[in-house]
Amino acid sequence: MKKAILYIHGKGGNAQEANHYQSICIGYDIYGLDYKGEFPWDTQDEIENEYKKLAMEYDEMIIVANSIGAYFCMNALQGQKIKKALFISPIVDMEKLITDMMGWANVTEKELCQKGEIETQFGETLSWKYLEYVRNHPINWKVPTAILYADQDHLTSRKTIESYIQNHNASLTIMENGEHWFHTDEQLAFLDRWITMNI
To answer: Rounded to whole angstroms, what are the CA distances from 144 to 68, 120, 167, 196?
Structure first.
């Protein structure tokens, strides 16, 4: 049986991050997708096309996705034949994240609707088009999913992640005192153990 893992990076990441998984995902061919789009309506075709290309070659597919890559993955691959998904610090409720950021920036829906886009002091651009897209394209994700969540994740609250777990075919592993970006030696060792336990 030919088996593949498709890795979908987070914001600011790249396809080369997939190389990290070569030595720990024995028996799988690893592919990293360097999508170019910044928005779900752009990344949808990129991710779906890569998935379909691999699905023609492989009998079994696993998705590993990081942060916003998990949201892009769920948006693009709903209904596809995927054995399992492994999400690292995933954005599981994009509408909640956008409205949270609006709150941090003291921006109302009316203001965002009128202006279309608003730059924030924390480096993100709020977009009315993005918020509308998320609301008009609800996620219906049925793939068995394992989630690795960091206790100190500043983008997704523990309440949000636990609510997602209750409503989906998903399991949750929490790294206490971990961060959204798994990058220290301790965090990466935890991540590697989690990956090998879940593939």
So the answer is: 18, 36, 12, 16
What pLDDT digit, counting tens, does each position of 55-106 carry? 999 999 999 999 999 999 999 999 999 999 999 999 999 999 999 999 999 9
| pLDDT tens figures, 21-42 | 999 999 999 999 999 999 999 9
pTM over 0.85: yes
CA–CA separation, 28 and 169 (whole Å): 23
Which tokens sit at 73?
């993955």
User: C-alpha 168: how far from its chain's center?
Assistant: 15
Per-state percent for the chain, helix, strand, coil, to nearest 5: 40, 20, 35
CA distance 27 to 140: 30
